[in-house]
Design brief:
The chain is built from seven helices and 18 strands. By secondary structure, it is of the alpha+beta class. Strands 1, 2, 3, 4, 5, 6, 7, 9, 10, 12 and 15 form an eleven-stranded mixed β-sheet that branches. Strands 14-13-17-18 form a four-stranded antiparallel β-sheet, with no helix packed on it. Strand 2 and strand 3 form a beta hairpin.
């Protein structure tokens, strides 16, 4: 199943090149008073609601994907957890360029662990990236994003994939500089998620997915998730040992070599096999 959010308030199931409106399922999520839940309500009940989602989709003719504005497939991520320098060639790339990548930030993931990005940085493809400081360099980083589907902690690697609700493409946009990594990666719009969430049964094995990123049609990044230093089960297990993971939490698994600057007007096109293509504009 592929589920998306679009046109600000709509929920859709993606089939082929069309989106089928299943927004009515939101009525099943309940009404909440203060204090509100801190997790994503739809992601938490995705498995339970799947038959209703599929039934609603069958009753809708659907609209072309190209006719809608795609939002982040996760409306309310409690946490965005990210893996730094998790591809060997990106580590080598960063180590060779201390001007762009200050040495203090170039450590193995085993040394530095994961880090957090502000959930307020999350947007969808339609909103695009807005460079916060035009006088400073902002880089693209394409990543496989893992969406957690249940509340869990201390998850063993052997069963880590069982807590996953789905996968999507992530752009971990990065402001270059000497400040803390979390600080520089958390401006508004610096986490782009999309184009939709693909459930594990449809995606299959996430450990051998080709990915690539192009800017204005020129390929800059190309790799496969088999090249991850910490694979997905290990990342989930590590993150869950420090934080309780909740439905809608996002884990960005790391970017390969080839990161580079983007400027206003650039079109970023990120592709991960089995998921699709995320296209977004830099403003």
């Amino acid at each position: 199943m592929r589920i998306c959010r679009y046109d600000k308030t709509r929920i859709g199931l993606v089939e082929g090149d069309r989106i089928h409106d299943v927004t009515a399922v939101a009525d099943r999520l309940g009404r909440f008073g203060y204090p509100l839940p801190r997790h994503d309500l739809l992601i938490a009940r995705l498995g339970e609601l799947r038959p209703d989602l599929e039934a609603l989709a069958r009753r809708e003719a659907g609209v072309p994907i190209a006719s809608v504005e795609l939002e982040s497939p996760v409306a309310n991520p409690g946490k965005v957890i990210a893996a730094p320098v998790n591809y060997k060639k990106h580590f080598d790339e960063a180590a060779a360029d201390p001007v762009t990548f200050p040495t203090v930030h170039v450590r193995s993931i085993a040394e530095s662990g994961v880090f957090l990005k502000a959930s307020s940085s999350v947007v969808g493809a339609a909103e695009g990236v807005r460079r916060r400081f035009p006088d400073r360099r902002t880089d693209h980083e394409v990543e496989l994003a893992v969406i957690i589907g249940e509340t869990c902690g201390f998850v063993p690697e052997s069963s880590a994939l069982s807590v996953v609700a789905g996968y999507c493409i992530g752009l971990d946009m990065t402001l270059r500089g000497s400040e803390d990594r979390s600080f520089r990666k958390s401006p508004d719009t610096y986490t782009v998620l999309g184009p939709w969430l693909v459930t594990p049964d449809e995606l299959g094995d996430p450990s051998a997915l080709d990915m690539r990123l192009a800017v204005n049609g020129v390929v800059r990044q190309q790799a496969n998730t088999r090249d991850l230093i910490f694979d997905i089960p290990r990342l989930i297990s590590l993150a869950s040992s420090f934080y309780t993971l909740e439905p809608g939490d996002v884990i960005l698994t790391g970017t390969p070599e080839g990161v580079g600057e983007v400027v206003a007007g650039d079109l970023i096109s990120a592709t991960i096999d089995g998921i699709g293509v995320l296209e977004t504009r830099v403003h």
